[in-house]
Design brief:
Two copies of one chain form a homodimer.
Chain A: E1 3-7, H1 10-22, E2 28-32, E3 38-40, E4 43-45, H2 47-57, H3 74-81, H4 92-106, H5 111-121, E5 127-130, E6 137-142, E7 145-148, H6 149-155, E8 162-168, H7 177-185, E9 188-191, H8 196-205, H9 209-218, E10 223-226, E11 229-230, E12 233-234, H10 239-245, H11 252-261, E13 267-271, H12 278-284, E14 287-291, H13 298-324
Helix pairs in contact in A: 1-2, 1-13, 4-5, 11-12
Chain lengths: 345, 345
């Protein structure tokens, strides 16, 4: 099953890892947010792309949500001695990635091609694609004024409230041939439990990308999403607080509302703790599957991935039925978390 | 005594260290070759400037002639895993220097200002100045064709014979205000035992720099040089082989001939093993001092520095006498290596 997963950093990387575990090599394409990108110490850093790459390569630092496991910090230590800013921490091996990227991009190689090269060198079996090759920079208007995303996110530890979000450069961004081909070949589209405002929204804002998704859905390709806000709390990062300060529901319902508004959603996966939101989400249009969504280890990543693909496959079948006559396929059951097997198989 | 030292990498750095040891803080300015500079992994690397900085900061790796003592190699190891070229080795802490430089230069800060910042952060008490702020790249025509200097020097280990040398960009290079001020304030000019062809020649080729030196010499400022070729062998690097393949004497006499031709030399310091060349050098014009020139430790660096400044001071006195009436000052004696005290004091 050829799957395109839209992803930001940590949550996106975890679900991508789950998908990679259960799909055949090459079946997964992860389209990753680049609005978080920054230039620092002259390096082109693409934090979400790298988190996905490192996670799929099995070398990601397991707890902090960025970087490579077992890193050393010699470069950073010396930069500090030289009086340079060090609020955005970069490990030594991580810096090699940025040097590789920066050097090639300066020579005119597209970010997509660089990412494909990095994935190959790191032994990643899936396709990892930046959402676009053009520079897009997420900026947030906060109670401290307009800030670059990483200033808000890392330097100020997400303390100021976000009042407005802009994706600078998005009007000049284009869908890459690689993203277009992946969406045209997709048999399911998966929206990872990433921040809907600053991880998923920039991807959807690339001109032409939603149209490709709409075309795919018209072909009957199901789109399935999951919330990174569970029980009203973001699993990681400031998504809940951002939703709130932007005047949206800081719940899985708020997340679903965004995806439905973007015309993105056939099925939405809710965590069991959010079961009471199921009716409200269903009222927006999508089917709802309730299951365990929190990915604490490799097994739970694969389990959520299986749930989502199972729901997508079922939904795809429903839509095929709809197109051919109208009979409904049986609704998917939640997987049994004890065995990792879908009950519906 | 305000001293300007023209220097390349290792030999230049050692003599600069000797000069720094015996001068008051701030009295020494080292004008360093930048023809060896390169861009690699997107980093602006200035090998001779860094060798001088690290040596004067007391953090230079003591044997290999480049880099920082006790380096780690995490970035390079990961770059190798990513399939990047690694023939030009960069340690982790060294990379911090290059990131610092690259970042600032991309923002429009002049290499001179960056070098002054680096020197301050590293606690260097002397002024270290790139020979120019404009990019100059030494290229060598060899039996393998035209090569960038570092390709010849590092990647091909100086194996091909050098048939021609060019300093690309030199016609657009200018003397920086800082180098000009240092030369105008100088009380002695010292030419370090660096490669005369690819370390000292690029400095002298910066348009306007020789004219500044000539003006200083007209003021009576003595210029004293020393050979990095001793007993017909380069102390380090390919200077002897380059002199030979370029059809010059691969001896201290050949080195002296170059400096005399450039109008650079009042006094030339010969190693004791080259004593038989003294008459031939003297026949070219400069006075000659014979002493131990090989710098094996901090003490011998200071000793050579003392010799050279002593010879310069004496020559300056002679020239002052010449200007005022004509009586000769007593000729300098070689320092006593046992005590490090000049016999002439």
């Amino acid at each position: 099953m050829r799957v395109v997963c839209l992803a930001g950093g940590v949550g996106g990387a975890k679900l991508a890892d789950g998908l990679q575990q259960i799909l055949a090599p090459g079946e997964l394409t992860v389209v990753v947010n680049t609005g978080d990108d920054l230039e620092i110490h002259s390096l082109a850093v693409s934090p979400d792309v790298d988190t996905v790459l490192y996670t799929l390569a099995g070398i990601a630092e397991p707890t902090q949500g960025w970087g490579i496991a077992g890193e050393s910090w010699q470069v950073m230590g010396q930069l500090a001695r030289l009086g340079d800013e060090t609020w955005f921490r970069l490990g030594d091996r991580d810096i090699a990635t940025h040097l590789f990227r920066t050097d090639r991009q300066r020579r005119g190689v597209r970010p997509t091609e660089v990412t494909i090269e990095l994935a190959r060198s790191l032994g990643v079996q899936s396709r990892v694609l930046p959402m676009t090759d053009e520079p897009v920079r997420t900026r947030v208007r906060t109670t401290d004024g307009w800030l670059d995303f990483q200033e808000y996110f890392v330097r100020l530890r997400q303390e100021p409230s976000v009042l407005e979000v802009r994706f600078e450069g998005i009007e000049n961004a284009t869908v890459t041939p690689e993203v277009r081909d992946a969406l045209r070949a997709a048999e399911a589209i998966v929206v990872a439990p990433s921040n809907p405002i600053v991880s998923i929204a920039p991807i959807l804002a690339v001109p032409g990308l939603l149209a490709e998704i709409a075309t795919a859905r018209q072909r009957g390709v199901p789109a399935v999403g999951v919330s990174g806000i569970v029980g009203g709390k973001a699993l990681r990062g400031p998504a809940d607080r951002m939703m709130e300060s932007l005047g949206e529901d800081s719940t899985a319902l708020g997340v679903a509302r965004r995806y439905v508004a973007a015309g993105l959603l056939d099925v939405f996966v809710l965590d069991r703790v959010d079961e009471e939101l199921a009716a409200a989400v269903r009222a927006l249009g999508p089917e709802v599957v309730v299951t365990d969504t929190i990915m604490t280890d490799a097994g739970s990543r694969a389990l959520l991935a299986r749930e989502m693909l199972s729901a997508a496959a079922w939904q795809g079948a429903v839509r095929a039925e709809d197109r051919h006559a109208g009979g409904a396929a049986p609704r998917p059951q939640a997987a049994d978390p004890a065995t990792g097997e879908e009950a519906s198989r």
